[in-house]
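Hi V.,

Quick status before I head out on leave. The structure for the redesign project is tokenized and pasted below; the design run finished overnight.
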């Protein structure tokens, strides 16, 4: 006898999705006619009339909403609503048969003026329950599809779950007066590690009022081989190892082992080429081993998936914010990300850039993304990069809150009097000053060193 159990049941996938609360929808439509002011009040509070499942009552709501702009509140009665509904039916804007003037008159009697908020909450609750049930069916259908893609499908399901209760377009409008007291508090409260992520570079932190801020998209851009990954790893070490701030690196170019090697060398001062050759001295290995418990306890996650997509990144960030307390993300690098379908590469990069900025704002974290510069610096005499040198620069420059350009003079002039130095050129800083911070480059240790600290 088989012991297999079908936990879904034979008809689970075809079970009817529960309908909305038709009685609540009826009362809410009647209340809208009797108290037209509630339409704007409820909309401002986030009520979505699309949650009214019965089209007949939903169109009554829309009719009141439109008539309120041309008629006084006292003039909105069932006669005017009936005329508007008949007009929309004739124009093909309604599928269902509109309520007649007589039916609207009978409906008007069931209004509950003063209780619109309660009935709107009942409508919303039933609509959310209905969408939740529908999502459950959708999840089973997706999972049963031979073309199921965990990266794309799970991320899409998670996005739908996020929108079950709070519609994507819900208003977040607030009064200026409600915001100003907090502004004054911030003006007299020096930033702390609770809302800033230190970079580990004293002068850069001073320029950024304590470090990177939540909600920011920061772009670190340079020509190839300038050390973009190294400087990002340095910022990650300062965040996770020095300040114990939950951090994550998504590396599309460098493998996890190579990245871990770079971080260890930079933190313990081990010659990178000696590690690669396997000739590190025992004394240095012992020093590194003594440091390992501290490094192992650092809240730093590394993902080296070379096929990183926007949905996959969003799903990972959402999970890390919830389970790990994620504060800062490093992406190496933007132009290597899997681009969504678009008519051109520039449009695709624009979509990536815009979505990264939205993720930073939505999750309240800092996203530091590395980017390649075009050959513009090499065509100028001084070789100094500019923000306009960003590949597909329009959208990246527009979306970024900050652009840091990495420049090493000795890359172009081996005998440069500034050999071993690097400039962090803050070429864009939304809401803050722009400047250049000089650091020392110690390539053999895979790190940049804060010159102010020395």
């Amino acid at each position: 006898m088989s012991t297999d159990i079908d936990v879904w049941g034979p008809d689970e996938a075809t079970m009817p999705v529960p309908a909305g609360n038709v009685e609540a929808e009826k009362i809410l439509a009647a209340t809208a006619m009797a108290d037209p002011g509630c339409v704007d009040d409820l909309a401002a509070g986030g009520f979505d009339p699309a949650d009214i499942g019965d089209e007949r009552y939903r169109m009554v709501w829309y009719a009141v909403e439109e008539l309120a702009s041309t008629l006084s509140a006292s003039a909105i009665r069932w006669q005017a609503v009936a005329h508007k509904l008949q007009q929309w039916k004739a124009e093909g804007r309604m599928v269902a048969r509109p309520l007649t003037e007589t039916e609207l008159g009978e409906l008007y009697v069931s209004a509950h003026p003063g209780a619109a908020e309660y009935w709107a909450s009942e409508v919303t609750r039933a609509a959310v329950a209905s969408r939740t049930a529908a999502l459950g069916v959708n999840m089973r259908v997706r999972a049963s599809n031979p073309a199921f893609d965990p990266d794309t499908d799970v991320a899409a399901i998670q996005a739908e779950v996020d929108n079950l209760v709070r519609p994507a377009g819900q208003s977040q409008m607030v009064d200026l007066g409600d915001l100003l007291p907090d502004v004054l508090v911030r003006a007299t409260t020096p930033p702390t590690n609770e809302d800033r992520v230190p970079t580990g570079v004293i002068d850069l932190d001073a320029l950024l009022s304590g470090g990177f801020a939540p909600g920011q998209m920061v772009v670190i851009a340079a020509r190839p081989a300038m050390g973009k990954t190294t400087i990002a790893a340095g910022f990650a070490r300062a965040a996770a190892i020095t300040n114990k701030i939950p951090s994550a690196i998504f590396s599309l170019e460098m493998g996890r082992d190579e990245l871990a090697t770079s971080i260890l060398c930079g933190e313990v001062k081990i010659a990178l080429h000696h590690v690669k050759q396997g000739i590190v001295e025992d004394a240095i290995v012992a020093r590194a081993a003594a440091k390992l418990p501290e490094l192992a306890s650092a809240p730093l996650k590394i993902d080296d998936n070379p096929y990183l997509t926007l949905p996959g990144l969003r799903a990972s960030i959402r999970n890390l914010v919830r389970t790990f307390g994620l504060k800062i993300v490093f992406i190496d690098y933007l132009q290597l990300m899997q681009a969504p379908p678009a008519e051109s590469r520039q449009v695709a990069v624009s979509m990536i850039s815009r979505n990264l900025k939205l993720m930073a704002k939505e999750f309240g974290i800092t996203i530091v993304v590395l980017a390649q510069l075009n050959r513009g610096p090499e065509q100028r005499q001084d070789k100094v990069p500019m923000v306009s040198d960003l590949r597909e620069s329009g959208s990246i420059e527009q979306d970024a809150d900050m652009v840091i350009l990495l420049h090493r003079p000795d890359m172009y002039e081996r005998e440069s009097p500034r050999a071993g130095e690097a400039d962090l050129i803050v070429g864009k800083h939304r809401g803050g000053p722009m400047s250049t911070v000089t650091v020392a480059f110690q390539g053999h240790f895979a790190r940049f060193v804060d010159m102010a600290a020395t």
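Above is the designed sequence. Residues 116-144 form the longest helix (29 residues).

G. will cover questions while I'm gone.

Best,
W.
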